[in-house]
Structures are given as structure tokens and as C-alpha cells.
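#lab-general

N.A. 3:47 PM
ok so I finally got the sequence cleaned up, no stray characters, all 152 residues accounted for. can someone with queue access submit it? mine expired

B.Y. 3:52 PM
send it over

N.A. 3:53 PM
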Amino acid sequence: MLARELMTTQVITVNANATIGDAVKLLRRHTISGLPVVDDNGRLVGVITGGDVLRAFQHRAQRVYHSLIGSTHVVLDDAIFGRDRDQLLALPVEKMMSRGAVTVSEETPVAEITDLMLRQNVRRVFVQRQGRLLGVITRNDIVRWLVSHLDP
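B.Y. 4:20 PM
back already:
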């Protein structure tokens, strides 16, 4: 099986200039964990995931304390979390996205895609042709395909 046979072609994207809040709304509305980020010309420039957003919030809300004997304590500060929430949600997606989304061609075999996902530790790969986004394949797509081929 090839990427073109397994990919989802109705891909929900977010523009790099949209806000993090816009991206979070799309993630929630479509019950997905990540979005391809495109520029104004529709070219793939990165990916933003729920994990990226959570890490950014956690990083801003934590306070690190060092004791005299050298151990470090990390404390999440709810006041800082609340204060910074709106500020973080207003940031453009390009400030928080991961650049260099993992991509394959439409002719890439599923076995190669599986290996790539595991080696790169990603949950989705984007299918492209000449820089244009054609589709997405997730780990769940591959698992569903594998299960559908099990003997009854």
C-alpha cells in the first residue's frame, strides 16, 4: 500500500499568522491532536500540536527553585498560568510551531512511513507533491489499516 491510498485528503490546516487560540479551537472542534501549518501560498511550513501548546503553557507557568544542597524544585504557579494564558493564546502560530514537518511523497510505501514515524517519533506525516500538501497519514490510520487486514 502507498501513501496516496491511505492518506486523508480533507486536511484541516492553520495559517502561520493565525493565533494559537485559533489553532486550539481547530484542534478541539475537529478532535485532532495536530495541524499542518501553511503559509499564505498554502505551502507547508510546520506543524503545531496540542503537546506544543501544553509545553508552552507549562514552561511559562513553572517556577524553578534551587536549594542550597543543589536539588531543584519545579512548582507550577496558577497565578502565572492564568495571567499568561491570554497572552500565549494571542501569539501567532509560527512562534510555537515545529518547523520541518515530516513529509513523504504519494508513492511512499506504508512500511516506510511506519518506520519513519517510529524513528522520528511523530504521530503524523504529511503527503506532498512539489511542495503542495495533498494529505496526512496518522499512526491511527496505519493501525486501522493493519487491523482491517487481520484474519477473522
